[in-house]
Each structure stands twice: as C-alpha cells, then as structure tokens.
Amino acid sequence: MIVGTAGHIDHGKTSLVRVLTGVDTDRLKEEKERGISIDLGFAYLPAPDGSVLGFVDVPGHERFVHTMLAGAGGMDFVVLVVAADDGVMPQTLEHLAIVDLLGIERGIVALTKADLVAPPWCTHVASEIGRALSSTRLASAPVIPVSVVTGDGIEELRRDLFDASRSFGRRAADGRFRLAVDRSFTLTGTGTVVTGTILSGRVTTGDRVIVSPSGLVARVRSIHAQNRPTDSGQAGDRCALNLAGDAITKEAIRRGDVVLDPELHAPADRIDASLRLLPSEAKPVSQWMPVRLHHAAAEVGARIVLLEDEALIPGAEKRVQLVLEAPIAAAAGDRFVLRDVSAQRTIGGGRFFYLRTPARKRRTPARLAQLDALGLAEPERALAALLDGAPGYVDLAEFARDRALGHDQMAYIVETLGVIRVSAKYDVIGLGPATWLRLQRSLLASLEAFHAENPDLPGIGLERLRLQLEPRLPAPVFLSVLQGMARAGDVALDGAWVKLPGHEVRLTPQYERLWMRMAPLLAGAERFRPPRVRDIAGLLDVPEPDVRCLMKLMARMGKVDEVAHDHFFLRNTVAEMVQIAGRLSAARAKGEFTAALFRDQVNNGRKVAIQILEFFDRHGVTLRRGDLRRINKYRLDLFRMSADAATPAASIQGREASPVGRPDFKSGRGREPVLGGFDSHSLPPRLGSAG
Ligand SMILES: Nc1nc2c(ncn2[C@@H]2O[C@H](COP(=O)(O)OP(=O)(O)OP(=O)(O)O)[C@@H](O)[C@H]2O)c(=O)[nH]1
Ligand SMILES: [Mg+2]
Hints:
- By secondary structure, this protein is an alpha+beta fold.
- Helix content is 31%, strand content 25%.
- The chain is built from 19 helices and 32 strands.
- It is elongated, with a radius of gyration of 38 Å.
- Residues 13-14, 37, 57, 59 line the site of magnesium ion.
C-alpha cells in the first residue's frame, strides 16, 4: 500500500514520516536550509505481516501544489496532517480537495503538534476538521492527535496504518503495465533509473517497455519494488526500474512520463472527460477556458470545451472535452485534477473516459450517447453499451488499449458479451451478436433484391453494397466480413462484385430471343470469321447498339470474346483456335510459327488471322518475336472450352439463382456465430458452421 501525506505547510508531515519510518525525506540542501519540503520524499516501513508500506511525503507550500499532485497520483491511502496549533488552513483544504478529486477514499487525519495545545483545543480543531471532511470521501476518517515530541499517538497511528494495509491488500494487477515516473536519475555502475508507482499490470525484468509519450524503447534491466530488489513489480508497488535502451538517459525521461507496455503507447491530446467544478470556485467554467491539467505525475496546459448548453457551475459535474497542449499517456478511467493557469488554485477534476475524441461532431445525439457508454467505469458495461449504440461496432483493440486491459480481461469480456470479432488489416472490430445477425440478414437481402432488379448484372459493387448496410463498416473490415461469408459459402466474391453463390447473369427475355438468333451466326463453318456487330445488326435487322450491348453482356458471362473492336468470337471458338495455334507450335522446330501458317489453318483471311494472333499476344497466349510466334504453354488453358459448346444459348436457360448454401435464419439451426478468442490472428467470423 502507498501512503501519502497531505496538508498545509509546516504542519509536520515530514516529521511524522520520519518518526514512523526512521527516514528523513527532506534530503535537499535547500530543504534543510529553509526547513520546508520542496520535492517529493520517499520512505518505506516494513509491516509485521511481511508486506512493506511505501510513503510519499509531499510539500505543503502553496507554490508546490503541482509537486504534491505528482505524488498524490500514486496514493492508496492518505494521512492528512493538520497542526493542532494552527488548525485547518488553505492547503489543508486544497490538498483535501485534490485527494478527493483523485478518488482516494481511505485515510486518517493526524492532528500533529498535539503537545503544543491543551486537549480541549484539540477537540475544537478536530470538529473543525470534521466539517472540512464532511463533503468528501474521507468523511468518516478517524482523527488521531499525535506528537513527534512526546511520541503520543504515534504507536496508535502506526497500528492503524498496518491494519489499513492488511485490509487493503494489493491492487489488482490484471491490466497492462503502466508506471508513472516521478524521478529519473543515473546511478553509477547501474545506469538510468526511473522511479514511480505502478498504476496497473505488472513488470518483469527483461520486459520491453516504451516511455510514453516520447516513444523511447527500453528494456527493464533490474527492478526494486517497495525498496527491495526483485524480478517483478505489480500495481500499487513503488518501483525503481533500471532501464537500458539506445536513447535512454536520465534527461530523456522526465517526471510525468509513463513507462508502459508497448501495446499501450498511444498518446492522447483530445480527451472526453467528466469534470466536477469545486464548490469553492467563484465563477462557472467558460468555453475554451485555459487550465493546467494534472494527470498521474504529468502536468500540461489544456483548454476546456463545454459539450452541453448549460454552464458548468461551481459544485456541478458535466461532460467536457479537454484539448491538451501536448499529448499525455493516459487511460480511460484515469482521474485528473485541473488548476488555474497561474497555478494558484485547484479548480476541479474528474475522470477521463475517451482518449480519441474527434475534433468535429462533438454534440450530435449519437456522439453524446456514445459518451454515456464511454463514461461507464466498468469495462464490460461500457463495451455492451458501446456495441448497442452508433456506429454499431467497436474498435476492440483501441478499447482494450485505452483502458489498459490485459489480454485475458478482454477475452473474458468479449466472450461474456458474445461479441463477434472481425479482424482486418490493422483493425479488430467487434459487433454485438444481434447487430451481426442483422448485418448478415440485410446483406443477403440486399443481394437478393439487387439480383432481382438486375438479373443481367453479375453482382453488386463491393463499395455500393457497403454503403447500403447498417452498420457501415470500414472498408477493410467489410471486405473481411465478405471473405468470411464467402468461405462459409454464404456469398460469392468475384473481383469487385459480390453476389449470391447461385446467381448467374440472366438475359432479359428480349435479349434471350435475340441471342437465339445471333448465336448461330457465330457458330458453324463461319466461326473463325464471324460477322461483326454492324453486320449482325444488318443481317437480323436490329439496332446496332442492341447487338453490341448483348455481346458485351455475353462477354462478361464468358460466352464470347471481343477479339478486335466490335468483333466477337464464341469463347469455344477462341479455345479451339488456341488449340490450333498450340498444335502448330508443337509441330515446328523451336515451336515458332508465322501468321500465314495460322491463317491457312483457320482460313479466315490475313487481316482477321493477325487480329486473332494479336489478341492472343495481349493475353500472353502467344509470345511474339518479329514475324514469328510461339505458344506460352502456361496460358493454354486461358480460354477453356466449355461443356455446352454446341448450344451456347442452352447454358443461359434454366439456371436459377439456387438457394444452395444460403443460411436458414428462420430455423436458426447450426447458425451460431463462430467466435474466436481475443487475438489478432483469428479468422474473420463466419455466419455459421454447416450443420
Ligand atoms: N512541537 C512539535 N513540533 C513539531 C511536531 N511535528 C513537527 N514539528 C515541527 O514543525 C516544523 C515543521 O515540520 P515539518 O515536518 O517539516 O512540516 P511539513 O509539514 O513537512 O512542512 P512542509 O513539508 O514544508 O509542508 C518543524 O520545525 C518540526 O520540528 C510536533 O508534533 N510537535
Ligand atoms: Mg515536509
């Protein structure tokens, strides 16, 4: 447990820590000379149960409140020090407000210098303290009169601290590792050492860590936790880490930096938060008001953006956005304190709840609902609420990172909520089970409707389909969903087209009738020199554009190929000509043949023969060198002969978009979403396993 002091200047904080631990934490020359604390002091007290209490002694001077704040960030328990001869003073109240804003709810009041006053006066000051505490989390904290001169009350105080430490136990260490740096120095023979309190998770020697926000990479060479050498430290421990790394020096790391798990490194400079304005403030918060923001051991300039129409008045609490002058390494749920720009008073404080705030659309209803969800402290409830709201999906990697959640914690939450995970290139997003079903249903319904309206199109464009659906997923995620559904046989992907698996392009009845008349013109003896679009139009007495349009359609279906402009050959004729060229090539020395030889085989005149060969060249079927060509045996199959060679029209008739492989939502049988654990390697989820 980390015990921190708090209280007005000269009230006896450092003296108390000294009698409790035997350590004089006023080490600096200036501190000795002036008789006041300037920097944070650290000391340790072994408890009878074998645990060690860490002490953070803070300065009481009004000019060092920022230093007090840097120390207060790591406290589990506060000893509020009030001198009996002086009573409640300005920094008594300010420090009390700060520990309250930081959510510290365990503490004791040490009524110091009890030797200087008569007992009735002690009682009087105690009631004054009771009034100051009444509106805070420490309302029921005991008040113990003590004196470092007579030793009165010291044993009782020490016993109470041990009891508190025992009942406090340890902070949960299941999140990812974060340590708020309060000191950085060089130790001869050791190198760069940083100290601070572990805010979450655990650290082990050999771990790779990042110093945030600077992004410097380091390795943990050795660890002291609670003043003892060890291989690992965990949440709530005060630690000294010996860090090694290319750019790691004592100057490169500063108070306020956070050493963390590399996964968590994502500094934030625009943060959604809840803010409580202290009742002691004279004026409401104004829009874009400048402040000093204190978070863990960091301090940075910031502006307040009000999100709601009413003002934030003293004593009230509201959602705001904090726009920071420089990014910090924060986590959602962290507490912060705001002071005025001239650093003279504490204004208020609260909790962060979203670290990736957009600069625009701050006040839309959807965004405000999202903020409500983000404001929920419990990760599971927050994720459930986020999944329920707009935009209908959650970036799971970001959610876990910004709450410093460990792999197991996140896996548990994902499983409990039945979240469907979709991994794409850089994202892992999650959808609620109901949203997932709805999405797939509407996706299939959209395809069905599209096919019904456009039987002559192979499918709908991927992007067009994406824009039709709710939730509108990011493009790479949507592709991943489609690929998963394609693997499951629920949809078919064909380049940029999406279709239902059984869908075949079907001609309108008019086109079908036209094709029945056209097809014979392309087949038979004339198949190597079929009529061109204009000729066909003339022969059949139909408008030329109709012929061209139908040809293009048939080409998309793979029934014909446009060998030269407006000159279409049946696919099977093309396949036959490839074989002819192949045979020619095989019969020749070096496999090379001339255009004339080919023309003799297909007997269609020099011009057309050359157009065909050039078509082959373009598709890599033939390789040309001067007047000679050879066959590229790897491309022989490019224009494969189909089984229904004789009657192309027959292949179009009688093929319905078959319902095979389509999900049966009504029965629900075997349609459980398949869900991997929380890891970035799992496959995109499927609509359902067969069966
Ligand atoms: N008589 C008496 N004097 C005390 C007691 N505790 C502290 N003092 C004296 O009060 C003065 C201030 O004590 P510190 O412990 O330095 O006070 P502090 O709260 O740490 O002061 P800052 O860190 O500067 O805020 C010193 O001269 C102490 O000797 C006490 O119980 N009785
Ligand atoms: Mg002191």
